[in-house]
Amino acid sequence: DAEITQSPRHKITETGRQVTLACHQTWNHNNMFWYRQDLGHGLRLIHYSYGVQDTNKGEVSDGYSVSRSNTEDLPLTLESAASSQTSVYFCASSEGGSGANVLTFGAGSRLTVL
Amino acid sequence: SQQGEEDPQALSIQEGENATMNCSYKTSINNLQWYRQNSGRGLVHLILIRSNEREKHSGRLRVTLDTSKKSSSLLITASRAADTASYFCATDQIQGAQKLVFGQGTRLTINP
Prior knowledge:
The complex is a heterodimer.
Chain A: E1 4-7, E2 10-13, E3 19-25, E4 31-38, E5 42-51, E6 54-57, E7 64-66, E8 76-78, E9 87-94, E10 104-105, E11 109-113
Chain B: E1 5-7, E2 10-14, E3 19-24, E4 29-37, E5 43-50, E6 55-58, E7 61-66, E8 71-76, E9 85-93, E10 100-102, E11 106-111
Parallel strand pairs in B: 2-11
Antiparallel strand pairs in B: 1-3, 3-8, 4-5, 4-9, 6-7, 7-8, 9-10, 9-11
């Protein structure tokens, strides 16, 4: 069965370190998204991609970067982790094209920055 | 800024009762979607209603959309303990180029 997987599921790191969260989908979806979820803010869009070599900034992109070298993967990198980036991160994908943009979500990655 | 705002933020009802959650949004949309999130899990798509639709049903779910008021409601009938979760509305904005904007969610608790 097709799926979308995130790793690691839990990560503790220190301020200033580089962290990469992986997202891998086997749906063959064109669109991929990274959201963060914080109490009181719901889900906020960090970065998104409509296809290979395409990346776009979302609402809260400062301090984050992504790259899309193939259809299946959209890794999220925190260049220099800050305590404000402690959050739960969700990757999602959708088919793209002219269809309705229905998202399939991963299980989430809980990141703690000390 | 968040497009959707859910109301109430939290709702607690008895099993078997109906649960109604509301969502308001600000800009023109292609469609509005509702998602469920169980504790510690990712979001799961429940139902989508297009901007030219007024009501849609799926099992025990009923969604309405009023584009003139920029609002939507999700009704869960005959609630069950398994319906305990957070529910989010998400808007697919006309100028949003296929990226959904989520509200803050309603935390629903079904008491046995």
